[in-house]
Design goal:
Layout (H helix, E strand, L loop, with lengths): L4 H11 L13 H10 L12 H11 L8 H4 L5 H12 L2
């Protein structure tokens, strides 16, 4: 059975020590900061930076194409991106 976007987000949340959510929501700034640390993104997370900077850092860290595209940084991760993040976290 294929995983939904919600399943992938929750899998990623749990992999970085965050809690699972029942409702469908994008990552909070705190969850993105935890993901940055888990994938060793080159983003200073104290204080927590804007979501767009953390998303770009995560994309860059796991080798996604167009990681620094500002249009991509301003929107939540898509399913294929979530699958790549989940795979990177599984590989650690």
């Amino acid at each position: 059975m294929t995983r939904t976007v919600d399943d992938l987000r929750n899998e990623i949340r749990q992999a970085v020590g965050r809690y699972e959510r029942r409702e469908s929501t994008a990552f909070t700034k705190e969850a993105l900061a935890a993901i940055c640390e888990a994938v060793h993104a080159d983003v200073e997370t104290d204080p927590i930076p804007p979501k767009s900077r953390m998303r770009s850092g995560i994309r860059r860290s796991i080798g996604m194409p167009d990681a620094d595209d500002p249009d991509r940084a301003d929107r939540p991760f898509r399913k294929d991106e979530l699958e790549s993040i989940a795979a990177a976290l599984d590989g650690e």
